[in-house]
Design a protein that fits this description.
Low-confidence stretches of chain A: none
Number of helices of chain B: 0
Oligomer: heterodimer
Number of strands of chain B: 10
Largest sheet of chain B: 7 strands, mixed
Mean pLDDT of chain A: 97
Number of helices of chain A: 0
Order of helices and strands of chain B: EEEEEEEEEE
Largest interface: A-B, 26 and 29 residues
Largest sheet of chain A: 7 strands, mixed
Shape of chain A: globular
Helix content of chain B: under 10%
Strand content of chain A: over 45%
Structural class of chain A: mainly beta
Structural class of chain B: mainly beta
Radius of gyration of chain B: 13 Å
Helix content of chain A: under 10%
Mean pLDDT of chain B: 97
Chain lengths: 121, 110
């Protein structure tokens, strides 16, 4: 079964840091780029960051640029998101997602269930 | 930056009725990079439509997508109980790679 499973969420104080992980299974991990997409409680979806298959190209939403860093370890079939200088606006459920439709690099066909990050003092 | 505006915010319909959801882009976009997702409470989003009009694997044919340029639509021909959910449109910008979502349309039972 093709699967993405996130972990690493939790409660963190404003200004703190957290590292999220996403474990992939059921597909050839290094055939695909991956992204992080978040959803604040009761709100819509927001793309956060993306990385290409090799890890050589990374991209960020303006809201997290300079604070978040995406990376991957193809040997471990894992995606990561290092989050620094966290603020209340970063409180959200963080999903990893795979754009896996052939010829349509923007369509996320596989999503994880998400890991919750709560920034609170 | 492209902004996607979905309408209406909430659609109140009965099972068996037809639902028409709209997504308007702030500037013309490639249909190839326009997708729609369905999200039910407590679940991850599910890809419905990609390339503006192609159904994803496992999506029933009562769902259809159309549109070009700045105006895109997803239609549910006859609502089933499991179709009541929130629907998001999404655009992919290829250079640099970034993704933008609309704010969502909630389809609720009338």
């Amino acid at each position: 079964e093709v699967q993405l499973v996130e972990s690493g969420g939790g409660v963190v104080r404003p200004g703190g840091s957290l590292r999220l992980s996403c474990a992939a299974s059921g597909f050839t991990f290094d055939d695909y780029g991956l992204s992080w997409v978040r959803q604040a409680p009761g709100k819509g979806l927001e793309w956060v960051s993306g990385i290409n298959w090799s890890g050589s190209n990374t991209h960020y939403a303006e809201s997290v640029k300079g604070r978040f860093s995406i990376s991957r370890d193809n040997a471990k079939n894992s995606l990561y998101l290092q989050m620094n200088s966290l603020g209340a606006e970063d409180t959200a459920l963080y999903h990893c997602a795979r754009p896996g439709v052939v010829g349509h690099p923007g369509a996320f066909d596989i999503w994880g269930q998400g890991t919750m990050v709560a920034v609170s003092s | 930056e492209i902004v996607l505006t979905q309408s209406p915010g909430t659609l109140s319909l009965s099972p068996g009725e037809r639902a028409t959801l709209s997504c308007r882009a702030s500037q013309s976009v490639s249909s190839n990079y326009l997708a729609w997702y369905q999200q039910k409470p407590g679940q991850a989003p599910r890809l419905l439509i990609y390339g503006a009009s192609s159904r994803a694997i496992g999506i029933p044919d009562r769902f259809s997508g159309s549109g070009s340029g700045t105006d895109f639509t997803v239609t549910i021909s006859r609502l089933e109980p499991e179709d009541f959910a929130v629907y998001y449109c999404q655009h992919y910008h290829s250079s640099p790679p970034t993704w933008t979502f609309g704010q969502g349309t909630k389809v609720e039972i009338k």
